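Team,

Forwarding the record for the chain on the shared tracking sheet. I've put the sequence and predicted structure together so nobody has to dig through attachments.
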Amino acid sequence: MSFSFRLILCLLVLGGVFSRDASAGEKPNVLFIICDDLNDYVETLGGHPQAATPNIRRLMESGVSFTQAHCNIPICNPSRASFTTGIYPHTSQQFGFEDWDKNEILNNSRTMMAHFSANGYHSLGTGKVMHNRDRNEWDEYGHPSDYGPFAYDGGKDNLPHPDVNAPFRDDFGAIDGSFGPLRVLQPEEGLTWRTGGWNKQRELRYASDDNRDLTGDELNAQWAVAKLKEYAEKPDSKPFFMGVGFVRPHTPLIVPQKYFDRFPLEEIELPEIKEGDADDTFKHTVTSAEDDRSGDRGTKIYDSLIASFDGDRELALKKFVQAYLASVASVDDLIGDILDVVDQSSLKENTIIVFTSDHGWGMGEKDYLYKNSLWQESTRIPLAIRAPGVSKTGAVSDTPVSLVDLYPTLIDLCGLPSNTKKNEKGRPLDGFSLKPLLADPAAGKWDGPAAALTALYKWARYYNPAFQNYSLRTKDWRYIRYENEKEELYYTADDPHEWTNLALDEEYVDRLASFREQLLEWIPESIPESETSDEAWKGAYFGKHPQADTNGDGTLTWPELQAHKKGMEDGTIKKPDPGERLQTSGVFSKTETGILFTDSSGENKYFVINALAGKVAPHLDQPAKIVARIKAAKTGKTKLMVHLISIKTPK
């Protein structure tokens, strides 16, 4: 070998070493794609045999697909607040639709986009990534969430699709009561299409599928494609964290006609639904009044839809499933546009792609058509991650994981600091990195728990995490525990549809106890509401003066409180009967119907109104001395405890 040849070879080797070192120092880009209300009706997950999602399948087959990925709470606002901050609902106490940035823990913990921005990334987002109030979390922001198209007659409110029958259209309105193809509206209908964010809406012109304005989801895809092309042309620019949030298949299920044409109504297959499957379930006992299943929203939607087709259950569900499959297919096309830009450019080798949904959606199983249940249809989500140089190609993991694991995963893959707290009022990440499962999905070894934890949203003025509803999903089991201590247990290895509640079988007492212990160790003990907080004071006022809620929406606002207080003071509002004073000893206990106080004689019982639950919680099952106000219920001889003046339990 000549000296000159050896010299050239040495330089090439050194150049390769330097090149690899430089490349190793580069941060990968992150592309985070999320749909709304998307269950397992996508190819490869087996949720529906007619699902047509070739682009989602393409992404899944180019990375790792998780077949048992679950949300941490199956409704939009708290789910998105949870995974973008990496904090469980029971940690933050964000179980409902309160503004996430007014939650002390979440507001003092960085969102994933803010954390990437603080660590050298350019963060840019468009559409529905968080439920709302996230515009300022991004360095660059595209389009706001757009739930349209809506039918519109020029009045104050949007309307359901004109083809939707009553009572469904009247019961659930322009969002949940609306589905059908985007079509030409006839002059005699007196309607136009409109779309846009909540603060600003615009007319959506539609002459045909090929001659119309773009929908909100299409605008978001177009924006993302343009931004990705810019980055592809500038490979040396700052790394990016891009979030793209699609609203479909969230209701209203209105997409162009061509997507409905892909799924002819007469060919639609319905999900497997067991008759009477809801009979051994207990969700309705915590979400409906007086153990009435018909009061649960998912059941209401199901019953109303069927009533709208004169009781023809098969036709009703076929129409809805058709609209859902069409909506999913419309998003799949948009995801394909985005993937094409990445895969046909230099971005492919250095861009992590995450695709998922905020929660699932039930399609009539257990006579339930909605999200916000602790069953498989609501909790299971699609999840695919492609991490160049890390993830296996076309691999599948059946390890139970959840959305709270995404934030620590991306931090791990990108080599960012793990401390995401803004200050000591924040909380560390609750989840665990999925990186080991990306590298070796078959082994199923990682630092995370053996079960995915999901909580349930139920409106409350104050969310005490010890008194909420939860599910644990392991590889072979699902365990559900409701706030009233009713339980469900399913052996999913043999019963994937969760048809048989084994909690009612004495043979499974020990296993039930094991899951119960595991769950109760996981969630925190009671966190009573601070009696000194403004909200607590407002809540106490609401408990004494429920009529102050003038619009009857179940929430007392400060203006309503001030107006009621002023009316009480000037005599324009009659002061209510404060009730009979009660001073006695006894015990508070939690029953299936709520909290009950039984005096020491055992002869007198008083039902405690819900507004006092937080104050009573720390004193359950202990002898207590109380001074309270009681009233007779409107019906029957029942006495209600409506106000607690004082309560003392022995130390």
